[in-house]
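How a chain folds remains the central question behind the approach discussed here. This step matters because it turns folding into a mapping between discrete strings. The sequence in question and its structure tokens are set out directly beneath this paragraph.
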Amino acid sequence: MNNEWTAVSPKHYKDVVPGLQYMQMMKYMLDGLEGDEAHLMGQIYKYLMRYGKKDAKNQELGKVYWYLCYLMLRNGMDEIKLHGTLDEIAGLVDEAV
């Protein structure tokens, strides 16, 4: 039985900001936030930092989108306006293609 404990330090969180570890960055970025707002922002930051390093890019962005939309609705964003923004963005993408 191995009683040794080692810290988890996955490669998809390394070298996001040279010289800083993941927890140092999160502490700095979440300073002043509390409760579920801190948690939601932490999730958003986490998935943005992993973009292209762990899961498929759109999978990571989908997670960011989910937490961001939840946070926006929690902060009083109108659901219809949020959908309208997505429709507007989709129109811009269609024009670019």
Q: What stands out?
A: The chain has one domain: 17-96. The mean pLDDT is 89. The chain is about 65% helix and 0% strand.
